[in-house]
Structure formats: C-alpha cells, structure tokens
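Risk register update: the risk that structure generation would not scale has been downgraded. Supporting records follow, first protein first.
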Amino acid sequence: MGIGGHLRIGALVREVVDSTLVTDAVEAVRAVRVLAGSGMVDLTRPQDIATTLRVNRLNGPAAALVRKAVTEHPDAMAMTDERGSLSYRELDQRSNAVAAGLRAMGIESGASVGMLARDHRGLVTTVVAAGKAGLDLVMLNTGFGGAQLVDVARREDVSALLYDSEFDGLLAGLDDDLPRIITWLDDGETAPAGARMLDDLIAESAQAGPVPDPTSPARITVLTSGTTGLPKGAPRAKVSPLGSAMILDRLPIPRASSAVIATPMFHGTGFALWLVSAALGNNVVTMRRFDAEKTLAAIAENRAELLVAVPTMLSRMLDLGDDVIGRYDLSSLTGIIVAGSSLTPELSDRVQDAFGEVLYNLYGSTEVSVASVATPAELRRAPGTAGRAPVTARIRLVDDGEAVTEPGRRGEVFVRCAAAFKGYTDGTTKSMRDGYMSTGDVGHFDDEGLLFIDGRADDMIVSGGENVYPQEVEHLLAAHGDVADVAVLGVPDPEYGQRLRAVLVLHEGASLDEDGVRAHVKSQLARHKVPRDVVLVPDLPRNPTGKVVRKALLEMDV
C-alpha cells in the first residue's frame, strides 16, 4: 500500500476520532478494525474508502452505502418486497431517476420532502434518491392521524410529500398545491386526483443519469415515537462511520446473504439495520404489514440469516405454536435482533427455547443510536438484560448527581457515543452531563456489569413514600401464563397523587380476573406495588414500531 493509501486510511481513523466524544485513539482503531473485519471497508482499497466518505458527507449514508454496494456487487439482490426483487444496479438507476425527477419538478437541494410509506421499494428508492438530490427527507410515521401529519409536515417545512395511496385520507389538512407523489398503489386502485405516480416519475427520467452534486448536504430526519405527544424531529446529516462500527461490533449482520427486516424503516432501528445490511451486500426482505406466519415463510424462502423485529412481533410468532413454526425451515437463521421496546425475561427465554441461541437485544434510542447490545449467552445468564456498550460507546448511571458504581443501584442512563444526534428540529435537545446524553431511562448494572433497564425516568411514581417503577410489575405480569400482553403505568390519583394501572390482554380461555391480577402481584412484590386499576382489554394500543401508546392508556375511562 502506498503513502496515499495510508493517508486515506488515516483519514478514516481521524474521521472516527473527530466525530466522537470518545477521544481514546485505541478505541478508534478498534472501531476501524470492526469495520474491516465485517467487510464494511476494505483497507487494501483506500480510494474506495475516500469516495464513500466524500459521498457520505455530501449525500448522506443511504446514497453513500448504496453507491458502495453497486460498485462492489451491482447484480446482487438489494431488496425483495411483495412485487419481487431489485438488484443494486436497478436500485441505483431507479434512485437516479427519482432524484432527477424531483429536481425537474423544481424541488431544489436543501428543500424538505416528507415520506409517508410502509416498507417497500418505493420507500427505499426515495430515501436513496433524496440523498442524491441533496434533499432533507422527513420520515413520517405510518401510525399518524391526520392532525399529527399536518402539524409535523408544517413544523418540518415539507415542500413535497411522497406517500402510499392508503394514507390519502390523512392529507386533507395539507395545502392543496403541495406536490404529491404516490409511492405505492394497491393492485386495482386508481391514483388519487392531483397525485403523480413514483413509477411514472422513474419512467420519465430513466435516461437522466446521476444528478449533479447538491449545493448543500442532504440530511434525514427520523421522528421520535411520540407515544405521549407530538413526535420530535431528530435530524442527521453526515453519519460517522462509527455508527456502523457500533452496530457491527456485537451484532451478527450477515454478508452477501439475506435479512428480513420486519420493523418499520421509517424509525431508527429498521433504517439503521437496512443501511448496514445494504453496505454488506445483503438482500433485505420487507413486508408492508407484519404477519407472523408470513415472516416465518420469508425467512425460509430467502434462507435469511437475520431477522429484525420488535418484542410484540416475536410474541405473535411464538403464539403460532410449535406445529406452525415447525412447518418452516429456519435453519439459516443465525441472529434475531430485537429492539424498540422492553424485552421481558419471559419472552427472552421463550424466543431462545423456540429458535435457538440466536437472540440479540439492542438497546438505544433515536437520539443516541446504539447504547448497548446483549448477546444470546448474556440473555441466557440474565434474561432481559440490555447487555454491554459496543465499541467506543460508554454508559453511565447517575443518581442524585453522582455516578453509580455499585451493582443493583438504580440511576438515570446516560450514553456517550459518536452517533448521537445534535438536537431536535425545534431547537431543543436531550439532557447532557459531562458529554453524556440522557436516554430518559432508569437502569442498573448487575454483578457482571450487564445493564438492565428498569423503566422510563418519568414513569416512576411515589406510592406510600416508596419509589415504584411500573416496568417491574409489568415484567411480573408478562410471565403469568394467562397473560398475552400487558402494560403498567402510573396515572393521576385525587387522593394519593398517583396510582398504578395495569392493562392486560389475556389468552383465550384464561381464568385470571382483576382480583387475581392483584393477588398475584401481592404474592410476589411489596403491597405498594399492587396496581389499584386493573383493566382487561382485547388489544393494547401500539404504534407501528411496537411501542404502547401510553397517552391512550392514560385517557382510559376506568
């Protein structure tokens, strides 16, 4: 390798160091080794590394990593959805056409466009095209109501909307002259009046070729979950290579294989794992709506090595029973990554009993990215643990202003890493302490240094002078054989200030009732942890990322 090559590799190390709050150069070198060991970068091809870094700075990570993939393996399958498969070459060509088409519509680099779509080729093509055109892409939540959509679109100054036709009814409050492009139209449907089809845009600009470099760097805004209010926008422009290293360090991302991503790509986990999977030349298999048995079929048909899901999805797959699961050859599966909400100890064990020692629990947030990962062995020793921080990340627990060092003591979780965001689009940010960013959660370490998340800091209630974290009660009830799903939270109480409310979904034929719920908690936990409200419902209200919509539980008429 010549001097120029060493300089470019040095530039990669410097970019890792410069973009992180962790100034330990040894850790930075470790991160580069993780990238090289996974196949993400080839240290013998320094010019390719330099090109990827440059495209990342200008066009964002999606365009950079797809360009890398199309250079290395253009004819490999990039994705498979309900309408077939696309190669990386086809994805590159389609995204070039969309970028050129958006420019031809007068949407210049630096403008914001909204994306309201389920997981399919239209979404992936648009994400890559927006980066190539230098557009700020706002990933809108498919669970939005009309008022939420309008509020977020106006706050983020969206100048065009790309969306699936099923959401047309939510657009009534938007300006009539807002350009609209349909990314998915169900078979037999006709396009809504005034909307263009993404496929038509591609056909019209198919010969356009790559668009000129944008005048300003592209960025992607992912929204927070918004389970208690209007979601905030967390924008990201250039993404540090460290973000990929943090994912690859403790997670089994395959190379030149297949991965089924069941979680929505408009949210952080699904999006990040699609990026890394694409960079490693994988065929990413998506479905517009989650179906437990179809997910098993997708794993078997594509010989997928990886499944990305949220806990409720895994629970529904297990509920199919051994006979149904046994119909599908899942022997290719080497990793199940679960993220998005709390993994109960009971579900942790059930998944590994059914699918083998393949479960990885990823803990993080839209704001801090990856904070920690638990491996299958760690989950067997300590079911439900969030594990340990990946390369260059650091976790600190803080209680009463001081760092927590002893096992078992709770503290607010703070994370220090390069992939953290720089602030919300409304100008606010998360709480910081000595370079560490709050996740808003409370947790503790065990004797081996494994992290456990005990609940949200603002979920804690005071009952009888004692601090109560609802998640402890939630995990206890989740392990009961009659309980199919459960959420526990604090609600206002006119006499005591706050009380616990447990909302449960029972299995068919269950004998458990409200008094039985209270008796079960009382037999296992202190009296002040027994929920005063017990509500039995057919289903819990969850958003598309699997998180319980707490606002709906708070507003229940009990």
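Supporting record for the second protein:
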Amino acid sequence: MRPDLTEHIEHLPVGRFTEKAYLDYAMYVILDRALPHVGDGLKPVQRRIVYAMSELGLSAAAKHKKSARTVGDVIGKYHPHGDSACYEAMVLMAQPFSTRYPLIDGQGNWGSPDEPKSFAAMRYTEARLTPYARLLLSELEQGTVDFQPNFDGTLEEPALLPARVPNVLLNGTTGIAVGMATDIPPHNLREVVQACVHLLDHPDADTAALCQHLPGPDFPTAGEIITPREELLKMYASGQGSVRQRARYEIEEGDIVITALPYQVSGSKVLEQIAAQMQAKKLPLVTDLRDESDHEHPTRLVIVPRSRNVDIEALMAHLFATTDLERSYRVNMNVIGLDGRPRVMSLPELLGEWLNYRIETVRRRVQWRLERVERRLHILDGLLIAFLNIDEVIAIIRHEDEPKPVLMARFGLSDTQAEAILELKLRHLARLEEMQLRGEQADLARERDGLRNLLDDEAKLRGRVHEELLADAETHGDPRRAPLIEAQAAQALDETALIPSEPVTIVLSRQGWVRLAKGHDVDGASLAYRTGDAFQAQAVGRSTQLAVFLDATGRAYSLPAHTLPSARGHGEPLTGRLSLPAGVQVPHVLLGPAEDRYLFASSAAFGFVAPLEQAHSRQRAGKALITVPEGAHLLPPVPVRDGDAWVALLGGGNLLIFPLEELLEEGRGGRGSKLMALGRDEPLLAVTLLSKSDSLRVHTANRYLNLSPADWQGMVGQRARRGRPLPRGFTRAERLETVRSND
C-alpha cells in the first residue's frame, strides 16, 4: 500500500462498524420498504408504482397497458429492486379481494380468492389506474408535495402523494421491518370520512366519540366481524389488538350454504380442512361437501349435514373453531408519522396526524394557486397598459433594436410584463381582446381575494377540507361490506358430541388386529380372521367411548372407538396406531363409561380396583397401569358392578373369598395390594366378584362345582390369606364363574 494513503484510512472496531451497518440497514427497511407513511398510506414501492403509471398516462379513462411496461418504468426509474417483487406489489393493489379500494384496474388473470398468487405473468396482464387512485394523484402537480431525486439522481419523484382521503386506514397494510411490524386493517371510506369530519369539528374528540362514526374495520370480503365493541374501542385507543371475522352462511333445504368468507381465506382450503376431519372420522355430522361457486356466486360452499336433526348452530360453531371459517387478525397501527419517525398510533392520533397533513396539503395547494393567480394578474396589468398605449408600444417595437428595456423604462413594466407584451400576436390587439382581458382580470382578482381569505382564516381552511372530504366520500364511497355482529369466539365441540352414540362391539385378534362392529349381538369367535390368526377378546360399549387395550406388561393404550376400522374386513393392526413394545401381546380390550370400575390383577396375586378412566391415555406409547412381575401375566380385568361386595380368587387348589372393601382401602397404581397367599411357583388362576345373592361356580376341565350364596359366604376370610382347599377332584380347577341371581 502506498505510504501516502495510509493516513486517509479510518480504523473502527468491528463491533462499532457492524452496529452502524445494521442500524443503517434497519432504518432503510423501516422507512423505505416495510412501513407506510401516515400521509398517503403507501409504502415506497406502492407510491412509485402509482406515480409511474400516472406518468405513463394510465388514468382511469386511458386504455390498459401491459403490466411489464409499468414494472419496467418503476424498477428502471424509481425502484431498483427485483421485477417479481414489484409486480407482486402491483397485483395486490389490483385484487379486489385483497385491497378494499383497489388502486389498479387490471385486465387479464390477476389471481383469485382461492389462489391469490395464481396471477399471470406481467407480460400477459394489462393495467391502468382506478378512479379511486385520482384521490392520491389529482393534486400532485399543484405544489402540494416535495419532490426528491430518484436513486441515481437523474429524475425526480414525489416524497409523498397528496392523498385527499386517509388511505392508510382505508386500504390498511401489513409489513415486517427490523424490530417492528405493522398490521392495519382496511376500513370503509364513508365511515372514515365521517370520523375525520367529526375530528375537524371537535379537535378534542376521544376514541369513543370517533368510534360512533367509525365502528370497526371493513374488509373486502363480507364475513361478519364478531369482535365485541369494548375490544374494538380498546384496540383503537391503544393502536394494538385483534379483530375476529367469521363466515356468513344460510340454510337452504336443510343444507348449510356459506356465502361469504373471512378476509384472505381460501374456500378450497376450508373444504380441505372440513374434508380432513371427515376422513379422520372426527366429523360424522357432515355427509357431503360441494363447491358451487361461480361467476354469479363467487362464494357458495355447501355443507350437507347427516340429518335434519343435526344442531346446525352447534355444528357451525365447531367448524368456526376448527377451520378458517373464523379467523383472527392482528392489529398494530404502526406508521411513519409526519416527523419521519415510526410509532404506534391510536385512532385519534392517526386521524389527527393525517388531518394535519391534509390541511397543510390544501394550504400548499391554495398558496400555489394564489401565486399563479397573482402572476397572471401581474401580466394582465402590463397587457392592459400596452392596450392603452398601443400606438406608442408598436412604435417602440418597430424602431428600437432592444425594445424590452425601453418598454420597461417608458411604462414602468417588469421584465415579465415586458416579455408578455413582446409575445403578443397582432390578432390579440383587437378591442374585443381588451374586454376579455379586463373580464379575466376581474375574475382573477376575486379569486385572489378568496384565496387570501382562505389562507388567512384557519377555520375556513378546515372548512374547505371538510367539504372536500364529504364530496370525495359521496363520489367514491360505498356501503359497508363486513357487518358488525357481536359474538363470542367459537368453541370446538367435544369430540364425543360430534359422534352419534351407537352400540358397538370391539373385536381383538391374537395377532393384535382390531375392528369395530355395530351392535352388541356380535360373536367375535365366529368372525373370519387372517391366516394364522384367531379370536382373542371382545368388548361392548358405545361409539362415543374410548377403547382401552392392555398389553401383557400392564401398559394401557386408548383409541376412540368410532375411529376403529369396520368389522366387514379383518381390521387393522394396533401397531399402526400405537407404539407397542416389540413382541409384546395385547390380550385384553375394555370399553365402557370412564367412571366404570374394574379389578385389575396379575397372576402374581397382586391387584387393585380403579376406574376405567385411570387406564385412558392419549399417548401412542400408552401408560403404565399395573406392574406385572417377571414371570407373571395379566389376568382379564373384572368389572365391578353394583352390589359386588366380595372377591373370589382361585389358585394353588385353594379358594379365597374376602370383602371387596378391604381391597378398596388400599392404594392404587403400581402392582397393587396382595390378594392371596400362594406357594412358590403357584400362580393366581382366576378372579371374580360376587354380590350376596350370586352363586359361584368353580370349573375344571369337564365339570364344575356350584356354591350357593350360603355355601361360599361361610368361606369368607381375609385378604392375602391362603384360603380354603377345594374338594377332591377340583384341586386342578382353572376358572371361576359368577352366576347372577337373575340368570
């Protein structure tokens, strides 16, 4: 490096350099890309698109011109960024379902509500400005705004557009900057103007007073805004909050017809969401869906209920809560103020700031017009002097080499007046022309006096803004689209409330395949099974209940009964729905009310009583219900019925009967309480429960021993004892059976 250059190098710590570079970038994103200005409500790219189209002569009365021409002018003259980003910003300003008051009138494929980004390439579409865009541009050449150099200094562009209405609220905007964001919902022109007029007349008006005229946002779509008025007031008072909008529907011959969707919601996506619930068997109340939307009915989604007995309001409340038929929109009214700084504004602050901008714009427009009028009056004064001394003026012009200074000296004219006289054509020297000039002078003098009075009187200036706002609202305003209806946010129905309660039977095979049959008169052993498979267990209950599966290790798993496959086939393996340990069998299935109690026991003679709810688990891996010691197995759970008061146990050739209350007093979980004292390697073979009028049968391979209530009640002992030996011939008994008194 040359020695004489080293003294010009600035040395900075890396931390300070990166901090400055990041802050510069952040401020650029905030001020020149992501946030709108309170004056015209536009981001720089939007402002440049509108201005470039006006420079191309693409007014609302002009012919459409290729969008590529506009994009080329924008990125070539004012916005040196990507053409795709510029075109996408242009598309958003043209889509009537995205922008409340579109600034661009598009011709061709500009996207659809279902696919907003399905628009054609810019070489195919054509565009021009809408009549509404005139409200942003009509005063541009009247000295109302400052112009600044473009990015390369070869052209000038407006720093802001002279918006005649508060576009920042009318079309709203969204944007993400560095460390801040903005989300301003769109509003209705007539309502916003009424709020502005009220604020002009009452500068100290608070949020509640303004919300009498501006009750809430107004989206491009006609969905209902259900946010309570109190929440809207808080939102407008703080500048932050949220708004909820839900779809509108009608009932036609028992079918639900959705006629309007929330803002930026796709009808096809809503149908996909509903269809997904139907496919997952989580929405049995609906049997069919149809999209009947067309040009005449842009939104017409038909939902067919299962029957006319379905509660339509409850069904729609569920759909509102589980699909995009109801949607919440964040509100953060963060804009760049007149001082050039971004901040979150309340409604009075935002409207007040815009009115200051509008009043100043009108003042500059009036001042600009006044200067032009006074300049013209000055010229007219000189022309009239020339008419009064026409012969002398002609003589000076004919004989003098430099007539201008002579005219100025002879008649006391200014340079501008003398130049205007010299540019007169001979035909304008007629007597009639003099009369016209005097008439113009009188008209301009009156206009000058009116403009001066307007500038000198703040009340008159505000009155002019008042009149123009009302006139623009009358010309460009329209009725509210999104009705305001106070309602609570929808809540999804409990899954069981959506399912018809029907008697069902769950059948489980030895290889862990499960299926569901309607009714309770199903014999699982008689069903067909896959080769090598056979019947294992079955349980009866209702379709709205949770099925509980117990594996050999004592873990419990749950699945909604109505989601199980039909018994018309072989069913499905539980391994597809549950995370079962490798090689572990599932020998038992239970189904019933959550409050039903069961006696859970292992062959190690430990067990406890617990409600079925204790076995419920939403996890694929299930939950540990009972600890089964090594070498033991889980016995079939025994339901505890009303009246059951004794437990009967069979093992080691002995029979033990003890009061059920002794077991209920023990803790739950783990392996449970000791049930019966058995010898080494002697398993607990069977468990059953008895009421005082039940008989007890002890089964061997080919016969059984019947014990009447009087017989077995005389054998009642204490829990965890050995019990009484069975008579000879029944020492190898393997099964107990309770014979109910009404059997």
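Residues 347-388 form the longest helix (42 residues). On this basis the risk owner (M.S.) recommends closing the item.
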